[in-house]
Amino acid sequence: MDLKFSKVTRKGPITIITLSRPEVYNALHIDAHFELNKVFDNFSADPEQWVAIVTGAGDKAFCAGNDLKWQAAGGKRGWDKGGFAGLTSRFDCDKPIIAAVNGVAMGGGFEIALACDLIIASENATFALPEPRVGLAALAGGVHRLPRQIGLKRAMGMILTARHVSAKEGLELGFVNEVVPAGEALAAAERWAETICKNSPMSIRASKQAIQRGLEVSLEQAIAEQREYPAVKAMAASQDYIEGPKAFAEKRPPKWLGR
């Protein structure tokens, strides 16, 4: 696929997706959204790719969100079914996705990070949902994900003031998993991805799907229904389900097949 606004690199079972519009702090417009939707479609469908990392080109920005200059100049707005960056409305991907935030993550950029399963941030990263300052609202998931991830009052404090939050405060609030020195976010995200890949990808997908679906219902219902979740059933029917206990009994590292 010919990519104009992003770059894709594969390291074994890890896919690294780089938002690549550094001249506008990796802000995204309609063409970039549609391109990234295809990129994430390909990742989701590839059985050889187990974990994705999303980062931004350059050392100043992860993503500055919606390209407001493009919009102000009359550029058409919109995105594909996957949502902002092809990710914020992608609810059917059971593979882990990690955000390596290497600078500014504003508006839609923060919403991309919130849509990921983990956020690894460089110490110079800055997060905000500043949409109210320009007459908009964070409707690509921000106003819904942030309260679910850090609690209502903390989220209200960020959203209603549109204030900027440092990586350190993001860690304290709970939406950042790790803060690393500037320039090291991607390397740290790769370390997390490599650790995840030591586990069975079937188990990881089953776990992610069970968490996501379980949060939508009561605890009682989640426990009662979890074995019927598609990814959980796929795990139980997989070769990995046999390989794990066998490798443990034989005192050797498991050889995961992902099927």
TrEMBL record:
This is Enoyl-CoA hydratase. The keyword Lyase applies. Coiled coil: none annotated. Its EC number is 4.2.1.17. GO terms for biological process: fatty acid beta-oxidation. The keyword Transcription regulation does not apply. Belongs to the enoyl-CoA hydratase/isomerase family. SUPFAM superfamilies: ClpP/crotonase. InterPro entries: ClpP/crotonase-like_dom_sf, Enoyl-CoA_hyd/isom_CS, Enoyl-CoA_hydra/iso, Enoyl-CoA_hydra_C. It comes from the Bacteria. GO terms for molecular function: enoyl-CoA hydratase activity. PROSITE patterns: ENOYL_COA_HYDRATASE (PS00166). Keywords: Lyase.
